[in-house]
Write a structure and sequence with these properties.
Belongs to the peptidase M14 family. The chain contains 10 helices and 15 strands. The protein is α/β, with parallel strands linked by helices. It folds into 2 domains: 288 residues, Aminopeptidase (3-Layer(aba) Sandwich), CATH 3.40.630.10; 89 residues, Immunoglobulin-like (Sandwich). An 8-stranded mixed sheet has the order 1-2-4-3-5-8-6-7, with helices on both faces. Strands 9, 11, 14 and 15 form a 4-stranded mixed sheet that branches. Helix 1 runs parallel beside helix 2, helix 2 packs across helix 9 and helix 6 runs antiparallel to helix 9. The chain starts with 17 loop residues before the first helix and ends with a helix.
């Protein structure tokens, strides 16, 4: 069958402007209609489509048990390497399917969404490529899209841009499990949190999430499979990154970033990949950038199969949406909930965990699981939960996490509790002395 499919024209190593990018994506979809789905999730300020190509055995819709993965590039319009290597990743995936057993299994068991450019206006506005900075960094309204999302730690006063709104809706409408956004200007894999407060350890210069171990693993997976990122040498002598990774806050504090938004509100683990010291390098370097990143891009996608997944169902076998499912000891400030099919996906490293499933109004269900390294099998451990007391007439109410700074409230509570604890300790000591 594959022999009968017309091959796409060879993709050149050059910069593809809007019309060429669209022509390539349409050509791929026309050549591989059963393996791909091309759609626009919205439009930019200047009216350009925000194209996403979906690849997989079921590209047009979510299939129960198959996790959703995404790559987003060119969020800053003048950071261009990611835009081009994602086009080459698409080309590699479709031409390898049915020929390479690893890629075939990956696409059969993963739904992969690729957005080559989130900021097409900024890319087109960059008339003179530069290694350091151009106005093309921003969108058509002059806004930095990676400072434009709701922030979990402080109020973000920036007006939500069309590109940001489109991505927020996209995240809301899909069950994304793992993601990465591709940037330029450094060589490092950066992980959440980008912002922080004393609750997450900001006073020590590190903002730690409940899943810090998983994020470190994800960042190391990319850096260790990259041609040179793992060396940690950075782009100059002033900046080094041990093992090629960094906590975002430790590098520099960032408000309104996309990776924190994905993790807190989208239930999706995302890291930021800085892929080139030069933001907009000469086109003759693109082939080397592709070779440097090719293995890392594939190995990172495989990590979507870490951990545990399953469904929460009622006594009749019907799915229960909006049930809370989390691993004991790592609660999220915005609890992770099941989707409309009652599905949950939790990224966890190999080990023993207690998984807590809760349908509001009913007793929680706890199950101990032993999670293996399942990335090579292209399927996380499956663990379903059945609530015999729940019927299909009873459903959890849809619960949306408020867009207020959630960790700001947590910090207030923490600060209010500390004096009370100190007073109790002091009173205990005094009682011992008097006795």
């Amino acid at each position: 069958i594959l022999c009968l499919v017309p091959a796409t024209a060879a993709l050149d190593f050059k910069y593809h402007h809007t019309e060429e990018l669209e022509e390539f994506l349409r050509g791929v979809h026309a050549s591989y209609p059963s393996l791909t789905y091309l759609h626009s999730i919205g439009r930019s300020v200047e009216g350009r489509d925000l194209w996403v190509l979906v690849l997989g055995r079921f590209p047009t819709h979510h299939k129960i048990g198959i996790p959703e993965f995404k790559y987003v590039a060119n969020m800053h319009g003048d950071e261009t390497v990611g835009r081009e290597i994602l086009l080459h990743l698409i080309d590699f995936l479709v031409t390898s399917y049915g020929r390479d057993p690893i890629i075939t299994r990956l696409l059969n068991n993963t739904r992969i969404h690729i957005m080559p450019t989130m900021n097409p206006d900024g890319f087109e506005a960059t008339k003179v490529p530069d290694c350091y900075y151009t106005r093309g960094r921003y969108n058509g309204n002059g806004e930095d899209l990676n400072r434009n999302f709701p922030d979990a730690f402080e109020n973000n006063s920036a007006s939500i841009q069309p590109e940001t709104r489109a991505v927020m809706d996209w995240i809301k409408n899909e069950t994304f499990v793992l993601s990465a956004n591709l940037h330029g200007g450094a060589l490092v894999a950066s992980y959440t949190f980008d912002n922080g407060n004393p609750v997450t350890g900001s006073l020590k210069g590190y903002s730690r999430s409940p899943d810090d171990d998983v994020f470190i693993h994800l960042a190391k997976t990319y850096s260790s499979n990259h041609a040179s990122m793992y060396k940690g040498t950075g782009c100059d002598n002033r900046q080094t990154f041990p093992e090629g990774i960094t906590n975002g806050y430790s590098w520099y504090q960032l408000e309104g970033g996309m990776q924190d938004y994905n993790y807190v509100w989208g239930q999706c683990f995302e890291i930021t990949l800085e892929l080139s010291c030069c933001k907009y390098p000469p086109a003759d370097q693109l082939e080397k950038f592709w070779r440097d990143n090719q293995v890392a891009l594939i190995e990172y996608i495989k990590q979507v199969h870490l951990g545990v997944k399953g469904q929460v169902i009622d006594k009749n076998g019907n799915p229960i949406p909006n049930a809370i499912v989390e691993a004991k000891g790592r609660p999220h400030v915005c609890p992770y909930r099941t989707n409309e099919q009652g599905e949950y996906f939790l990224l966890l490293l190999p080990g023993t965990y207690v998984i807590n499933a809760t349908v509001p109004g009913f007793k929680s269900m706890l199950k101990t699981v032993e999670i293996p390294d399942s990335t090579g099998n292209f399927s996380a451990l499956k663990q379903d939960f059945s609530f015999p007391e729940v019927s299909d007439q009873i459903r959890s109410r849809a619960a949306s996490c408020p867009k207020t700074p959630l960790y700001e409230e947590l910090a207030r509570v923490s600060a209010a509790v500390k004096p009370t604890i100190h007073i109790l300790v002091l009173m205990t000591i005094m009682l011992v002395i008097f006795k």
